[in-house]
Amino acid sequence: MAKIDPFTPTAADKFTFGLWTVGKTGSDPFGGDVREQLTPAQIVDLLGKAGGVHGVNFHDNDLIPIDASDTEAAQIKKDFRAALRRNKLKVPMATTNLFSDPVFKDGAFTNNDAEIRAYAIQKTMKAMTLGKEFGASTYVFWGGREGTESDATKDSVLAVKRFREAIDFLCEYSISEKMGYKFAFEAKPNEPRGDMYFSVTGSYLALIPSLKHPDMCGVNPEFAHETMAGLNFTHHVAQALEMGKLFHIDLNDQVPGRYDQDFRFASVNYKANFFLVKLLTDYKYKGMKHFDSHAYRQSDYGDVIEFAKGSMRNFKILEHKVAQFNADKKIQALLKDIDRTNAKLSKLTRKFTKTNAKALLAADLDRVKLAAKPMPYEELDQLVGELLMGVR
């Protein structure tokens, strides 16, 4: 009997890709297409060849071109639905393109022009209906043009108010139409705008409590976005997890300080991606794992399939490394020594009462003795490195 490869993905892993990711033609700001443009149905068939994919996600205009006629749209949807059936793929998430068309050159929900803001909301309403038609349950908002190059051009306080107003309206629309969506906001510090509003995941986590329907709103952090700003992505995901607001996640890879590269997941930052997978595994994240990335410009579509396979395989490999980490006796012993519990003191500091405050003030806490306690962090980090490099 053939041995089963433990790193082969299945639909149960909830790995998803976007039409815009595997369907990317390899163009960039300095060069045009190097791969032919595939239809949405052809992209679904390509993902079917990769194997183990759970679903495919789309912006409204990834599926239906912005100027398509009703007849053209109906045929595209018919072909797309047939491709989903024959490849047994779902559509877990949908979103709106509010950044490509010239009308959004200065933003959508935060645009200075009231007519453009109204058009952006109208376009999103239609896109939400399209997503629901294919079963999407999560709706992502990425404000690709929400920002400025010069702060002379927009009132930033007013921009936040306008964004909140749009989201409140769309929450109410989803509720009124019984769509059942969960909204997930995606942050990015810059590109394509010089400075983008809601630049990090924490910006949205701060906004959500001010919305009319905070329970239906969460975040969709993307690895490349916080990483390109030199930040620790795992910390941002951890905050979202702790708050119960990690509704969706975008996985890729990125060299800090560069443009948005959207590399294959775990192709650059093995260590950072390991700790991300460990976080998602240890805290039992049950949502979709979406690869918002694309193959190299040099790739043909055969290599794009390998890109998709590699993205999923790398996640599975890192899951295996997490299991090794959690079972490693020496690593776990070090962690036990580092995490020094004190039930008595923890009870005092967990909740303020006058009694607890009085007891804490009287506690014998010698800073010199406390500072002298060993912290074997170098040893622990070395063991992590050896585990990842395959010598442990």
Task: Explain briefly what this protein structure is.
The protein is of the alpha/beta class and 392 residues long. The chain contains 16 helices and ten strands. It has helices spanning 19-22, 40-50, 60-63, 70-87, 114-133, 156-176, 201-207, 223-228, 233-242, 270-282, 301-327, 329-338, 343-350, 354-362, 367-371, 377-388; strands at residues 15-18, 55-59, 93-95, 138-142, 147-148, 182-186, 195-196, 217-219, 249-251, 289-291.
The beta-strand count equals: 10
Q: What is the CATH homologous superfamily assignment of the largest domain?
A: Divalent-metal-dependent TIM barrel enzymes
Secondary-structure element series: EHHEHHEHEEHEEHEHHEHEHHHHHH
What fraction, in percent, of the residue positions are helical?
40-55%
What does the radius of gyration come to? Answer: 23 Å
CATH topology description of the largest domain: TIM Barrel
Give me the side-by-side strand order of the main sheet. Answer: 8-6-4-3-2-1-10-9
Mean model confidence by pLDDT: 97
Helix segment tally: 16
What is the CATH class name of the largest domain? Alpha Beta
The biggest beta sheet, please? 8 strands, parallel
Low-confidence stretches are none
Q: Ends: how far apart?
A: 29 Å
Second rung of CATH, namely the architecture of the largest domain: Alpha-Beta Barrel
